Amino acid sequence: MAKTLPQAFAANFLGQAPQWYKQTIVAFLILNPILFFAAGPFVTGWVLILEFIFTLALALKCYPLQPGGLLAIEAICIGMAPAESVYHEAAGNFEVILLLIFMVAGIYFMKNLLLFVFTKILLGVKSKKVLALLFSLVAAALSAFLDALTVTAVLISIGTGFYAVYHKVASGKKSQLDHDHSQDEEIVELHRSDLEQFRSFLRSLLMHGAVGTALGGVCTLVGEPQNLLIAEKAGWDFIVFFTLMAPVTMPVLAAGLLTCLLLEITGTFGYGALLPTTVREVLEEYAREEDSRRTLRDKASLIVQALVAVFLVVGLATHLASVGIIGLSVIVLLTAFNGIVEEHQLGRAFEEALPFTALLVVFFAIVAVIHEQHLFTPIINTVLMMDSDIRPTMFFIANGALSMISDNVFVATVYINEVKDALEAGSITLAEFNTLAIAINTGTNIPSVATPNGQAAFLFLLTSALAPLIRLSYGKMVLMALPYTVVMGSVGVIAVYWVL
């Protein structure tokens, strides 16, 4: 209890975050201006990146929006980047922002269908190895034609649904009663060990699925935002893009799926947990109850959701409109035909997406600093000066390393623009440009699975409401992604070296 006004201010600062965490953020805020004037903006810029990574790494201690936002505001105030640059970065990624606002909310209104379908799959597939492969393969296939954030939103919705069902029963409540599945106080002692195993089971499935989004996303022109940018600069269409990337992406896809299987067989790096028998029984009972209580209106609602899901896939695959606009269409269709017309019912759908959308704009402020201070320029220039035989391999490695600590879309944008300028200046040939464009695309997509920083889909999963429920921290995510990073990155480097 605060006894003085200064103590009250200190208690309010970053809320329930640990005291040492608050002190660390204050130390960062004091250090940065001093460092800026003493060592210059370049050094301070790299320190700022490390500080922002710190806030992401400890996302379970405090949501990164507040501490990361304070660091970003200070960086703008001391002159590391103008506010206009932040707006420019956000405007350049407006389609991603619209996607988060509307597509994630659209998936929320589809959760009953997703839970229905994936409950059948989860209960129908007894082998965890087959189930893990299925999650990874389906995520890869969807990400090749949709986008990784949409697929991740689906995975989060599925995981949250399964967790909420069992958590309610483990708390000794009937499935019809309201329940807060974020609190463990009511968990019956008998169910606690099963709940921990179930968390581990869900963590492994979600990580397999998240990596799957990267495996599929690198393959096609529409899989990731930077793919479209690179294809536009190179003048490639869908088929040409897929064909040129295939010598690298197909071996990586095979290696990724094999890694998924081996991790489940060996049970290492946090994988291998099986679905507890008691949890399976609860989910089976839940499925039976839902089937028996399903009314004609419920069935009509599922049919509408299925039809809208088809519209969603077709719309995204054929580029009917921008992703965010299609997401808004999904919201309108699902709510109009399923009787969801009250404002507070609509509001719940946006609760998951908007905090992350705000965090993403804060991240764009950090990207603006990277851009304004040319933090990556020395690395880019060093690689461009290398011999043409080794240049593609070094581009892959450099892009991968930078994508682990920054946004892979930003890294790809910087590199492809530099390479395009080199082509127009006559420094490289068209054949070399095409080779380097392949290395840039695969380099920014594949090694970036190492950390949540590199892939927006990974960051979305880390900062989702599901992550603390299943105890998925930054460190845990990095550890679980490590074998994938090593295998996929190694296969990617070898493929780039030998094929390109």
Proportion in helices: over 70%
Which secondary-structure class do the elements indicate? mainly alpha
First and last CA, distance: 64 Å
Number of helical stretches of at least 4 residues: 24
Q: Mean of residue pLDDT?
A: 85
Q: Write the element-wise H/E pattern from the N-terminal end onward.
A: HHHHHHHHHHHHHHHHHHHHHHHH
Radius of gyration: 23 Å
Major sheet details: none
Residue stretches low in confidence (pLDDT < 50, at least 5 long) are none
CA-based shape? globular
Strand content: under 5%
Total DSSP E strands: 0
Descriptive keywords:
500 residues, 0% strand, globular
Set out the fold topology.
Elements: H1 5-12, H2 19-39, H3 41-57, H4 65-77, H5 83-92, H6 94-108, H7 111-124, H8 128-145, H9 148-170, H10 189-217, H11 225-234, H12 238-266, H13 277-293, H14 296-317, H15 323-337, H16 343-349, H17 353-372, H18 377-384, H19 391-405, H20 408-424, H21 430-445, H22 456-462, H23 466-469, H24 474-499
Helix pairs in contact: 2-3, 2-4, 3-4, 4-17, 5-17, 6-9, 6-15, 6-17, 7-9, 7-13, 8-9, 8-10, 8-12, 9-10, 9-13, 9-22, 10-12, 11-20, 11-21, 12-24, 14-15, 18-19, 19-20, 19-21, 19-24, 20-21
Task: Write structural notes for this entry.
- The protein is mainly α.
- Among the domains are: 15-80, no CATH class; 94-354, no CATH class.
- It contains 24 helices and no strands.
- The N and C termini lie far apart (64 Å).
